[in-house]
Amino acid sequence: MKYFENLEAIKYEGPTTENLFAFRHYNPEEVVMGKTMKEHLRFAVAYWHTMTQDGTDPFGQPTNIRNWNGSTPMETAKNRVEAFFEILEKLGIEYFCFHDIDIAPEGDSLEEFFANIDEITDLIKEKMDQTGIKLLWNTANMFSQPHFNNGAASSNSAEVYAVAAAQVKKGLDISKKLNGQNYVFWGGREGYESLLNTDMAFEQDNIARLFRMAIAYGEKIGHKPQFLIEPKPKEPSKHQYDFDAATTMAFIQKYGLEGDFKLNLEANHATLAGHTFEHELNVARSYDALGSIDANQGDLLLGWDTDEFPTNIYDTAFTMYEILENGGIAPGGINFDAKVRRSSFEMEDLILAHIAGMDTYARGLKIAAKLKEDGYLDKLKEARYASFKGDLGQRILADEEDLETLSEYALTHDTPALESSHLEMVKSRLNDYLV
After folding, report:
1. Which residue among the candidates 99, 275, 315, 359 is catalytic per the annotation?
2. How far apart are CA 294 and CA 290, in angstroms?
3. CA-based radius of gyration for the chain
4. Could you say which of 28, 172, 225, 392 is the most buried, measured as most Cβ atoms within 10 Å of its Cβ?
5. Is a pLDDT exceeding 90 seen at residue 221?
6. Where is Mg(2+) 1 annotated to bind (predicted)?
7. Of 324, 315, 314, nearest in space to 430 by CA
8. What is the CATH classification number for the domain harbouring 129?
């Protein structure tokens, strides 16, 4: 069965096209700075928002029209696989991501859940072999079930901890089966509601223990994907331990996980943490830990994770600038962890939303490439730190100065020379690249 039988494969037609079902800016074979757009962008589709999200919100019932719902949960799960790969092929996207509960019904026991996963991943592998589409990453949902109420690896229950370990083991088995390139940990409930009854150090020690178990098991089965931690400051927990990129890197360094773990960063999570997305990418890059990204955007007027498709060119330009500065993002990618708005309820909206996101990232890539080729930002930074190229600056950088020698210098040069940043003009000139 074809689920989008009236739609052809989406092609690049250029910025003047009036065809809604065409790329206006994303040309997969166009070469930018020595690589094709397809190589730079490594787009992925998120199974959860694309296949299982139904338009429900806290105030309303489902609105999404979907033609893959069957008479049983397993029939629906199998239909979703067929429809999902049709979406990927129509968009020309070569990667995908999923949680374990996205693809298979949980059933009445962990044993039944795992059996369902085996059956569905057999079908997914068959589709992967037919199409050449690859698994960017998978993860275990360790936050939805009631038994994860107080966390998974951070739970106060040793029995819940064991369930979490079982899901991670199964996740790595799936990753090997499907040749996953990354494996993500998102600790939705790895945090606390109140410090009055929480031993934070104990809980974080236990999280690190589970991560070390994952590393060891991957080595045992001969499959070691790039492990990723995805930061988020809150939602659903009041305070989550992986608050932002810097907090997560402190955790990684504290427990000696640098050689195995990098970060999967999401734009909307950066907003919730009070940061810009490029800030989070820059922090990760400074630690050589930029692993992969979830491409979406939040609404600054709303205080929660809205997971909108990215359409802000300013944001995508600076996202891609950081990725170019990083030398690329492989084996990570750009996963559309985004959902259509509740009012965009038709089947075709799934295609249109991804086209919009892909075009916006393509424009961001071209803007970022132009910024790099012109050296615009490099020149600004070089001018800003020019004093460190003088004699005094060079001695400081060479560790040839100390508090006494610098104090002596300051006492005889007590009116430092300063130059204006002209920041308003800098931003105005930046608009020339954006428009």
Report:
1. 99
2. 12
3. 24
4. 172
5. yes
6. 230, 266, 294, 337
7. 314
8. 3.20.20.150
